[in-house]
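About this split. The held-out portion is used to measure sequence recovery: a designer receives only the structure tokens and must propose an amino acid at every position. Recovery is the fraction of positions where the proposal matches the reference. Here is one held-out target exactly as it appears in the evaluation file.
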């Protein structure tokens, strides 16, 4: 947004889900507003029907951030169906990944044509299309970038797309397992779901004064933990979002009840040695990525954290593609 010369205006969220609040978005619209950009957070879709009505009413573009949200559906709508454009991330931590890259989806031919031009330095014909049958002229007709997903990474996506539903079903089972196991844990709350979640991150909310103790205990059990996204410097602009706690537990499709045991560690359980994960070298390791950090001063349920399994030193040794402290090089598989 900022690179494009636009000024982002923060809009507060529904405190139950962390998703953009359409009423707050309405209140933020001014004559200078050009677009609404909802983020489908953790795998749950924003209220696209309400946002689409709002965008149409004010003649605004609607651009969806679906980095967390490929498989979801809400009110009969899936990511990209109502927006002018939808942005996906294929980064290594995402549900659908080829290691790096992303995609823009759109139903608008004008946006599609412009994106195809701009992603390839503004060339009217990319190299492969200049030699179909006979040579065809081409030229630089716009100032673009080099933003195409290369063919090698794109080829990895073919299999990932086929696995998408299966991996979703397994993450969904992990969600159900956690939800059952964590029900009734005092002070712990799960963000609300709406419709079908992509289950990108399993996030939990804990009281601020217990966060760091819990982080330490999870770390002792080799469940790697980290706080992602330091709090917004101006929580007064988005008070509800600033109070929103968020932390992720591991939700890999391979996670099974009792494997390792306990699959859902209770904070009061004694430290234990975790068995090796039977991950073949080079296999993907999705759904264990990010969480949102917020300011500790925001309230009793703030100071969120993020936890993902196997980021400790032992786990790093098991997974040679991860970086070891003090080593500058990435070790090959
Ligand atoms: C919600 C959200 N939007 C956008 C991005 C950026 O994705 P990328 O790294 O592919 O640019 C991320 C990355 O983690 C994300 O979590």
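Reference sequence for scoring:
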């Amino acid at each position: 947004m900022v690179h494009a010369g636009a000024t982002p205006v923060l809009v507060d969220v529904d405190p139950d889900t962390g998703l953009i609040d359409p009423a707050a978005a309405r209140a933020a619209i001014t004559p200078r507003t050009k677009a609404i950009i909802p983020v489908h957070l953790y795998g749950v879709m924003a209220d696209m029907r309400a946002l689409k009505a709002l965008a149409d009413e004010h003649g605004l573009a609607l651009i969806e951030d679906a980095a967390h949200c490929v498989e979801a559906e809400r009110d009969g709508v899936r990511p990209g169906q109502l927006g002018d454009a939808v942005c996906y991330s294929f980064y290594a931590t995402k549900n659908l990944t080829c290691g790096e890259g992303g995609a823009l989806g759109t139903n608008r031919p004008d946006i599609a044509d412009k994106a195809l031009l701009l992603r390839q330095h503004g060339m009217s014909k990319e190299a492969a299309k200049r030699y179909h049958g006979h040579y065809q002229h081409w030229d630089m007709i716009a100032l673009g970038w080099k933003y195409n997903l290369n063919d090698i990474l794109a080829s990895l996506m073919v299999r990932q797309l086929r696995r998408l539903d299966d991996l979703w079903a397994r993450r969904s089972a992990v969600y159900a397992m956690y939800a059952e196991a964590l029900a009734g844990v005092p002070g712990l709350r799960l963000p609300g779901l709406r419709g079908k979640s992509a289950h990108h991150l399993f996030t939990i909310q804990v009281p601020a004064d217990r966060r760091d103790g819990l982080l330490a205990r999870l770390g002792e059990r080799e469940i790697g933990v980290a706080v992602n996204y330091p709090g917004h410097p101006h929580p007064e602009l988005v008070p509800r979002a600033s109070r929103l706690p968020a932390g992720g537990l591991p939700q890999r499709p391979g996670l099974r009840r009792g494997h390792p045991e306990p699959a859902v560690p209770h904070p009061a359980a004694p430290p234990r040695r975790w068995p090796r994960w039977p991950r073949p070298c080079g296999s993907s390791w999705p759904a264990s990525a990010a969480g949102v950090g917020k300011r500790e001063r925001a309230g009793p349920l703030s100071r969120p954290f993020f936890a993902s399994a196997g980021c400790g030193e032992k786990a790093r040794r098991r997974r040679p593609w991860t970086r070891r402290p003090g080593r500058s090089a990435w070790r090959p598989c």
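Annotator remark: The first strand starts at residue 35 and ends at 36.
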